[in-house]
């Protein structure tokens, strides 16, 4: 699978659900390059956002889309002094 943020390689990983009282392991995808995480719940929420934006755009007549995630390639490195 290719990362939607940086187009890097994603691997299957397992994550602990910290929001509940029990330990629930959830499978998901993690990017080796930028650390982006995608699991079924994240993807579901992103789909709901896209559908909401389409409805709002249809009602308002706007064709504007929400900004895409910041590309790792477009970030400028800053010099840090330690």
Could you describe the 3D structure shown?
It is a single chain. The chain has 82 residues and is an alpha+beta fold. The protein has a domain at 10-64. Helices cover 26% and strands 20% of the residues. It has one helix spanning 40-60, and strands at residues 10-16, 25-31, 37-38. The chain has a three-stranded antiparallel beta sheet with strand order 1-2-3. Strand 2 (25-31) and strand 3 (37-38) form a beta hairpin. The model has no long low-confidence stretch (mean pLDDT 79).
Per-chain topology:
Layout: E1 10-16, E2 25-31, E3 37-38, H1 40-60
Antiparallel strand pairs: 1-2, 2-3
In a few lines, what is going on in this structure?
Helices cover 26% and strands 20% of the residues. It is built from one helix and three strands. The protein has a three-stranded antiparallel beta sheet.
What descriptive keywords fit this protein?
82 residues, alpha+beta
Biggest sheet architecture: 3 strands, antiparallel
Shape: extended
Q: What would the average pLDDT be, to the nearest integer?
A: 79
Element string (H = helix, E = strand): EEEH
Strand content: 15-25%
Number of helices in the DSSP assignment = 1
Our Rg estimate from Cα atoms comes to 17 Å
Helix content: 25-40%
Strand order within the widest beta sheet: 1-2-3
- The number of strands is 3
Unreliable spans are none
> Structural class, from helix and strand content?
alpha+beta
Our measurement of the CA-to-CA distance between the termini, rounded to an integer number of angstroms, reads: 37 Å
């Amino acid at each position: 699978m290719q990362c939607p943020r940086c187009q890097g390689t994603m691997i299957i990983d397992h994550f602990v659900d910290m929001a509940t009282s029990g330990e629930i392991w959830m499978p998901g995808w993690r990017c080796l390059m930028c650390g982006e995480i995608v699991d079924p719940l994240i993807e579901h929420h992103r789909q709901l956002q896209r559908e909401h934006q389409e409805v709002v755009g249809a009602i308002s007549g706007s064709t504007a889309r929400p900004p895409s995630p910041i590309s790792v390639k477009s970030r400028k490195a800053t010099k840090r002094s330690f």
